[in-house]
Amino acid sequence: MSVDGAMPSIANEELLARFIVFSRWIRSNQTVKPDAFMPPSTLDLSVTRHKDLSIQTLWQIGQQVADARPATLYGRADLTATEVRRQKLEVEPRPVPENLNHASIIGWPADKPAQKSFAQELAAVARYVAKPSAL
Amino acid sequence: MIIAMTTTALIYYGAASTRAVSDAARHVADQIETGRRHLQNSVSLSPGGKRVCDDLCAVAEECKIPNWDGHGAMPVSEETYRLAYRFIESLPLGIPAPSVGAEPDGHLTLEWHRSLRRTLSVSIGPDGDAHYAALLGPRKKAYGTEPFFDEIPKTILDLIAQVMAA
Asked: What's the predicted TM-score (pTM) here?
């Protein structure tokens, strides 16, 4: 946090992870469906910043998300803050006690078809990483 | 009758293509094989149609509880499932089978996908509207909403054709 209390913004090159706990959000060719990037009614889509996290800690956070349902953690979809901002969306830090790297993708349009179009663009550039079996 | 016989022949006798020897014969055999694959994936013909309906049932069942995505998703309602089923039933013969998914607002989705930038997603919710979005190449896209009254909107049929065209 900066001296004036404002949260530092997320750098363009930062990687963001969207955890996948629903198998139907992954295609058979290991790409991610736009469904995984559709915002909830609050219009803030949860992601986790990779920043300063080991890969193991990142997966542990994903597992917490899955355990809250409870559900299976299948993997994560990675994309950069630049790729989010290219769609005229914004990503802001929203730390929570159980995940200080939590962030939200915001700035979504209100109408559903436009949201779907934005989600398609994000899914088209996201890289799917399956959860390693060793974890 | 002729169409039905041709369909059956394409599905069950496609394996004969391996006997082709000349370039022309191989081309014809390839075309038959392509047609056979398309027909096997048609929504209105089993096993493709049955698979989609089975998938729809499985997704609706899995997503009928709140927070099914671990991020606070709404449950999929009976009415949404019923409308999505009718949508699939209304797809005309020859349309390739979509894959089924769900969104955080409790809508069911049907996706026709050829590549990352040639893809169509249609959302069905309890209000009977079909919300769609498509990527149609590097820069072209389309999205909107059409009412669904037991007949697939022409806009959506046209988009399926564009996305799945060879």
From this structure: 0.82
